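Sequence in, structure out. First:
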Amino acid sequence: MKKTALIIFVLAVLVSAGTKAQKKLSLQDAINMALANNPAVNAGESQVKVAKAKNTQAKSSFYPKASILSKYFYTNNLPGMYPLAGVNVPVMNNGTPTGDEITMHPMAPYPNLDRDVLTFDFNLIYPIYTGNKRKNAVASTNDLDEFYNKSLNETKAGLVQKVKTAYYNYITITEVIKVYKLALQQFNKHLDLAQKAYEEGVRSQFDVLNFKSKIADFNSKIIELEGKKAVVETALKNLIVIPENDSVTFTGSINDIYNALGLAGQTGLATIQTNNYKVQSLESMIKLLGKKEKMERAANLPVVFAFGNYHIYHGRDFPPFDDSWRNGYAMGIGVKINLFDGNLTKGKVDEVKANSEKLNDYKDGMKLKLRFEYEKAIENINALKTKMEAEKTNLDVGRKAYEIAKTGYKNGVITNIELNDAQLNVTKIETSILNIKKELLIQYAQLDYLNGVMK
């Protein structure tokens, strides 16, 4: 008895642990997890960090550049003779000056050839005028940051759409399985009726076999749907980055989500063409290329810079090779002008302009594509709404026909085939309505994606 109680206790603990480990996720939970964990989003966020780092680099050009260069070394020069300043010496002829002179450079050795040398230089350089290259460089990194953010938002919006699509498919399959299982229960009841009628000699064995065939068929369809559900669940787990073996349940009902959404008000095309993140990304890149063109044009403009230097030397490495300490400073203004670069700057400017024109063409093409996708989604929504109304009417009729068929079969008025047809018709319409609701939700998710909505 004690052993049995222990086993029951252990099983209860295991079941409890399994229940606690299971995660229940709503649609919003799945979206939040995807936005937080998906590698594509993480990669986009890293790109934004790159843009911010480039902005810091560009801003550094507005500050002076200071550097220190110091060297200490010991040197040993071989003794040698070094020329002194030239001396004019008269030309003599038998001790008498001729009036001509020649310049002589006598050689003399220098002492202290073995010595240690220390040099120290502190340099400071600051660009005063660069043809607005620094200003445009900072502005271009701001545009780059905007471009990466828009691209990241596009990635997020696309990810949200994928999560919604997978989620709607998952819960729709779950609802369809429920409908099929309910139909299966009805078929089992019909089978019981047919068996009793057969035993009483009212119905033939064909009725019993027919119902058994339908039950087997529905069992097969349920197994097939369970397989599809597992595939969709795996895809959904991958999107939100959950290990495949983790136990998770996606909660929600297609009817509840459909009713809560309301399906009111449609986003206009002009709004979509303005809010779409792909269009905004292209516009950001076009702005970036505009700054780059200005920077390339400034390559041939003069650059004015200020410089300063303070130096300390000990043990000169050139004549007079003494051990004296020397220090001093220098400061001034410099100008650098590129006179001719072989049309390199012109080629770079032309390349940037061509890329800008190409992106403008892409943007125009993107707007045309958005128009097509928007109108297609609207047409699909209108068609699905019309079909929904028709199916609702068909469902009312089908349910009444099924009730009549059940009564007729009990009274022996109709055959089992007619009863099956009546029930299958109801099941088919109920499944159709679920799929229509799913497709409507997917079309509205498409509109949200086109409009840059991330929720």
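Second:
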Amino acid sequence: MHKDSGGALARMEASARILALIKLANVGLTLIWGFAVTYVFVRVLPLREFQSFLLLVAFGNFTISAEFGLTSIIYARLRRHWLGNLGLGNLGLGNLGPGLPADDAGGFRLEEMGVLFLFLGLLIVGGFAILSVALAVGGLHTAMPLLFLLFFLSACINLPALLAKRALAAVDGNFLWEALDCLRRVMTIALLLFILQGLDPRLSLALQLCVSIAVIGYAIALVHRRLGMRVAHWLSFRAGGGHVRAHYLRDIGASAAFTLSEIVAYNAPYFTIAAATHDARPMLLFDFFFKMSRSLSMLVRAMVEAALPRITRAYHAGDRARLRQLMVRALGAALVFALGASGALMVVGEWLFARLFDGRAAIDRIDLLLIDGALLALAVICVSVYVQGALGRFTHLLGRSLPFLAGSLLSVPLARILAPERFDLLFLILYALTLLAAAAIHGLSLHRLVGRRP
């Protein structure tokens, strides 16, 4: 029975179609949770309190993203190690047994896992401390500080979840994680919606946190078993930290700079809009775009991650024809998703905006058209970032992210100076143009990628 279930699991892991389906199901649940957060809290919080809550969400996004791409680094290194274990040629790693440290000086070592989990834990503690100080001194205004702290923790628990996900994916454990995460999402959505039925929001968030800790703990146990780790590997911080410092600080530096650039580019308008105006509409308009872009990026990511086992094999084996074929498919699928989302927004966007924000602002057709154009550009950017990040090309990605960063930072002040009476519209125009320029740069980068050897 155990062998039969193991064989069935292996077949599901090997099927890009099945992986894509379960990843899309998980994306759907994640999106429902994200929209449910807005739907619930815009109804239980006063408008000014909800605007502070949106800043909290943005700060949580900053904190989660401040893992500096370490999870992408661990995926790239562990994936290369695992493919070497499976005997894929052209990797130069030799025949490494599963669960054994790499023999080459700069290869993957199991002690890295404990160091990275420690770093993410310290990042959560640091973010929690900063938020606590901001609440104490009035930097973030709220009459419900405990609610804000619990929400921050329930969001940031996704940091260790992301590392567990990437580690399992690198060792062909995609299906295991996605099934576990679907279960987690269903339970947290139910707890969130219970708030509208009278459940104390603080209790709801505390229970969501407990569910996430249990599921993530089990996922980490799966990583431990799959890699053949011992407890000592998790606690060898000196050995693991020394290996990290000695062999891939360059990757960490490039990844950290790239991640910071992306964090600021995607989230800075929350703060620049708050500094530019007290009018709620521009903030709600950008939050709507952010939610749409996040929804699309998650769909594209699910599709790309389902194809990554084949893409990474083709790249590391030097099979450029196969790599080109897979990249064309990935870009085509991403653009189909973007076109579908754009068409849906033109039909139900005004209704969705009004329902989502409880009628506290309205969105125009021109706003929706600009968002649609930005989503098409975002699809190309996402494919480039997810694929090249999985291949460890962080320095290359950093150079391509800087124009997007500059455009994001300048869009709000330029719009405020040039058209104060239509500040919100000009901001959207500038932000959409920034994304289109960034997409052109990433498209050229992908074209060169499929023509170069690893």
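Remark: The chain has 17 helices and no strands.
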